[in-house]
Specification:
two-stranded antiparallel sheet; 4 strands; about 425 residues; globular; about 0% strand
């Protein structure tokens, strides 16, 4: 009943305003409501990954560091909710992780350029969506936060009591949408992720190739592989294959372009993001082939030979060597598996020398060597601007990501020396 009343009130406000303007198109333009695949599938999705990184992932890392290195400040309880059997305790990392829903929603609202009252109201919407979405909470937050933010933007500053109307509309629309669509969206995402993980266990070679190649491609494209892996809840062998694919692209491009970009390019791509190469890939798609072929090799090696499992938080599966988060996720999964991994049957273990060697080879050594070898055999040559260079044919390809070609698809900023900051895989 309340949801119907809110919808009716919002409908009358919007129709009244639209009638006095040049139609719906003019109204949407004035409200900065851009309905496009880029706005929702790239900007919002990438921002969601950043919000998840700054809450759940950081919280997990703090918990693991505190536990493994016996840092009292990071392991002691700093907050307690409830009492008796319902008592819930939180460490510093636990508090950060608990805020993942609100952090994702606010990040999405920021990407949609929501006004302040809408942005702040999304804290409540994100919490509700993540809670109702269950294991597939991140995907539920993405859909619901977009709906709530756009409705909030539509009514923002349209009444004399904006300070009441905008938060009420945003929160009620958001919670109403979460109540209706979050459980099925979360359930569907979780089920699809389970299907991928179970299939990888049954067919480790084929799925190792498929998951590694596809997630690696997603990492380099201007979308968020981290958000995709988080939404699907990829852990276990599938998570290990995803890490392999991401590393193949990041380390591979860093090595391939070393002749042109030197150490700055090695660092910005190797522990930053291979997304910087997208302008060059658009000009000459062949330069992507060595990294893709490498991911097709390292993926099944990870799943079949090294049995590499990523049992940290699912977001790590799509991070690769970005801030070494993929490797931290594997290590965290060894000593302190995430809740998602525990639900899939993972257990803490003491890593052996073979496990460490496998992680190093899959993450760094094999991507560097194989991509260089494939690059030489493919005889792709690029000049400093990323175009074809006849004189370079037969040499190691060198896609340049120097001044004028750095790109991070809105997920980072660019300083005066064309370096990117704030990038998320």
């Amino acid at each position: 009943m309340w949801y119907t009343c809110v919808k009716t009130h919002v409908y009358h406000i919007l129709i009244k305003r639209v009638d006095n303007m040049d139609g719906i198109k003019g109204f949407l333009k004035r409200k900065n409501i851009v309905i496009s695949a880029r706005r929702y599938g790239i900007d919002a999705l990438g921002a969601m990954a950043q919000g998840l990184f700054c809450s759940l992932l950081i919280g997990t890392i703090l918990n693991t560091i505190g536990t493994q290195f016996h840092i009292d400040f990071l392991t002691q309880v700093v907050a307690t909710l409830g009492s008796g059997e319902n008592q819930i305790t939180y460490t510093v990392g636990g508090l950060a992780s608990a805020m993942s829903g609100p952090a994702m929603a606010v990040a999405i609202g920021s990407a949609l350029q929501a006004p302040p009252l809408v942005l702040f109201s999304l804290v409540t919407v994100g919490f509700a969506s993540n809670a109702l979405g269950g294991a597939g909470g991140p995907l539920a937050v993405l859909f619901v936060a977009i709906i709530a933010a756009e409705f909030g933007k539509a009514v923002s500053k349209e009444t004399k009591v904006d300070i009441l109307v905008t938060p009420v509309v945003t929160i009620l629309i958001g919670i109403g949408a979460a109540w209706i669509i979050a459980p099925p969206i979360g359930g569907a995402a979780s089920a699809f992720g389970q299907l991928i993980m179970r299939t990888t266990e049954l067919q480790p070679f084929f799925m190792g190739v498929l998951v590694s190649v596809l997630v690696g491609i997603a990492l380099t494209l201007p979308i968020s592989s981290a958000a995709i892996c988080s939404v699907l809840g990829l852990t276990g062998l599938a998570g290990g294959a995803a890490v392999a694919g991401c590393c193949a692209n990041m380390v591979g491009f860093a090595v391939l372009s070393f002749r042109e970009n030197r150490w700055g390019g090695l660092v910005s791509q190797g522990i930053g993001t291979s997304m910087l190469q997208m302008p060059n890939i658009v000009k000459n798609p062949r330069i992507w082939l060595p990294a893709i072929l490498t991911s097709a090799v390292t993926g099944p090696l990870a799943t079949c030979f090294f049995k590499l499992e990523m049992n940290g938080d699912p977001i790590n599966s799509g991070m690769g060597t970005c801030g070494l988060c993929g490797q931290l996720g594997v290590w965290t999964g060894w000593v302190n598996p995430s809740d998602a991994a525990l639900a899939n049957g993972a257990a803490a273990m003491a890593p052996t020398a073979f496990d460490w060697v496998g992680l190093i080879l899959i993450s760094f050594v094999l991507p560097a060597v194989l991509t260089w070898a494939f690059g030489c055999s493919s005889k792709i040559g690029l000049d400093q601007a990323g175009g074809s260079d006849p004189a370079a044919v037969g040499k190691m390809p060198g896609p340049r990501c120097g001044p004028g070609n750095f790109i991070c698809s809105g997920q980072g900023t660019r300083d005066s020396q064309s370096r990117t900051t704030g990038c998320i895989a």
